Amino acid sequence: DALLWINSLVAMCRQMMPNEKSQLFNALNQRHIFEALEEYLRKSCNGYQQWERLMALEAKTREDQQRDHTGQPHPLSSGQGVTDGNAAAGSAKTDEQHSSGQMSVNGK
Question: Where are stretches of biased composition, namely Polar residues (predicted)?
């Protein structure tokens, strides 16, 4: 579905610049394409549901990694560090801290 949308976007750009195909990708900034694709996926029902499932799975994985072998939450996960709400908001720094395990006392 997203690939079809990207192909439609490229076709539309080619119609606007039929004699300048070599400049097509020079004129399109990759960042704008990805921002438009992200917006499209958020707005499409299926894409939004997939995004929600991904965020829920990521939060569960983080929670599982924070538990020690006894099944109890890791001491640092009880009120210190970054909350799942902030991680779900898409902070790359937050995700890096969680995935690399680099978290200090008092969440600094």
Answer: 99-108
